[in-house]
Design goal:
With about 260 residues, the chain is an alpha+beta fold. The chain has 3 domains: about 90 residues, Arc Repressor Mutant, subunit A (Orthogonal Bundle), CATH 1.10.10.10; about 100 residues; about 60 residues, no CATH class. Helix content is about 60%, strand content about 10%. The strands form 2 sheets. A 4-stranded mixed sheet has the order 3-2-1-7. A 3-stranded antiparallel sheet has the order 4-6-5. Keywords: DNA-binding, Two-component regulatory system. Pfam families: BTAD.
Length: about 260
Amino acid sequence: MSEAMMVSPPQLRLLGQFRLELGTETVELCRNGQRLLAFMGLRGRVSRTVLAGTLWPEVTEEHARGSLRTTLWKLPRGEPPLIVCCGDSLLVTPALRVDVHVLTRTALDVVEDCGPPSYTRPPLELLTGEDLLPGWDEEWVLVERERLRQLRLHALDTLAESLIRQGRTALGMEAAWAGVRAEPLRESAHRAIVSAHLAEGNISEAVRHYEAFRRLLHQELGVAPSSRFARMLPERLSERTAPRNRDLARRDCLRAWFR
C-alpha cells in the first residue's frame, strides 16, 4: 500500500454512484462487496445474522453466512481493516469517512438550529446533491433513501426560513426552490417562496406564486392550499381568494356526492 493510502483516511461515497477511495486511489469492488460495505457504512455495527439475512434473503442461513464470509475475505486489506469483527457483530472502522453521515449531521444541525446564527455559506450544495445509490432497488436502500430525502426537505425548509429572517432573501429563495424541485407539491417550500417575495415587498409576485400553486394543487390532488398559506397574503387578497377556495371545495364535494 502506498504512503498516500496509509496517511489519508478511507472515504466511502454513497451519494450518487458507489465509490470507495483509499488515499488517492479508487478501489473497484465486486457487487456483493459494494452492497456489504454500503450497508455497513450506513449502519456502523451489524450482527452477522442480520447482515447475511439482509444481503442474501433468498437463500438458506448457512448459504448466506458462507456468502458473507467470502465477501468479507474479498474486501481490500489495509491497516486498519475496513470491517472489524467483534464477536458475532461486524463494525466499520472509525477511520472510514462516509458522505451520508456528513449530510445527516449537516441537515440535523440546520433543522435543530445548532449552527451559527448566520450561515456564511449556506450548505445548499450538500442539501441538494445526489440521492443515495441511485439505481439500487433493494428494500434497505429504498428505506434509507427516503429517510435522507425527507431530512433534506426539512433542512431546506428550515434553511429557507432562517435565511429569509436574516434578510438574505435571494439565498432563502434558492433553498425554497430546491425544495420545490425535489417535491413540487410540498406546501412548506411554496410558503417560503411567498414569504421571500413578501419580505422584498413584491406582493404581486407573492400572489402570482400562491395562485400558481393553488391551481397545481387542485389539478393534482383536488384540494386547496391550507388556511395558513392563505393568511400569509395581505388581508384583502386573502379574502378574495378564500371564497374561490371554498367554491372549489364545495364543487368537489358535490361531484363526489353525485357520482
